Each structure stands twice: as structure tokens, then as C-alpha cells.
# Entry
Amino acid sequence: MLFPTHLAAAGLLSRLIGRSPLWLVVGAAVPDVVDKPLGTVGVTALFHSVGHSALLAVVMVPIALSGRRGLAVAIGWASHLALDAGHVVVNGRPADALFLCWPVVEPPDPLAIPPGSFFWYYLGTPSFYLELFIWGTLIVLVVRGWQNDRLSAK
Ligand SMILES: [Zn+2]
# Structure
């Protein structure tokens, strides 16, 4: 899933569960902010590694237990993993979801496309339309929020 969509989905999720949008968005950014640079410079062979591994729960659970902000960060991080795993399944590559087990198990045939090139590969895939739905929902909620603000200001 594209990075901006993870942030938008975290914003939507914050409205659904009543948590801080800022900290959910921060948590949702963590996997790509950590892993894309590592993959780009060749530290890891995959673009889904440390930040996308469910084993990072060893760090995220204590963060979640540290308080409301920490819980929001952990939920945002988990939402990123869930959306990325869902996206590869929707796009017919369920074995790619094994990135969740990195470094214990790795996907047998990962796409390994750099982030910039990935965007062009990704356009028109089934998961891309799911992203359009997320953005459409966000736009509707923002417009409704503006309308409600204008009505309550009168
Ligand atoms: Zn990701």
C-alpha cells in the first residue's frame, strides 16, 4: 500500500476508535520510514523488513502499555502491517505476507521493487482500488466536517 494511504487510513482509524490522530499517523509511518531507506541503501534485501515484522511487537507492546500516546502509536503501526498484508493478499500474492515473519521466514518470491517504481507497478491493481476507497471515505468525512463546522458557526 502507498505510504500516504497508510497515513490517511490511520487518520480514519483514529476517528473510529477515538484515539489521537497524530500518534496513530506517527505509528502508521514507522514501518516505511524505517524499512524503505534500509532497502534502498541495501542494508536489507527487502523493502519490508524490520519495521514491517510482527516480531517488532517486542518493542510495540511496551510502547502500547506506556500510555494513551504509546497505544495510539502501536495501533497505527499494527494498522500499517495489516493493510500491507491485506494488500498483497488482495493482489494475489499471499506468500508475500510472510514479510510479517521477517527475519525468521521471508517471502519466497518477493517483488523487491524500489518505492518509486512500485508506484507505477501498483496503479490499476485490485489493492489500488481499495486505496481509492480509503481516500474517497476520507474526503467525504472531511467535507462533512467542514459542512458541520459551517452550520454550527451560523
Ligand atoms: Zn509498508
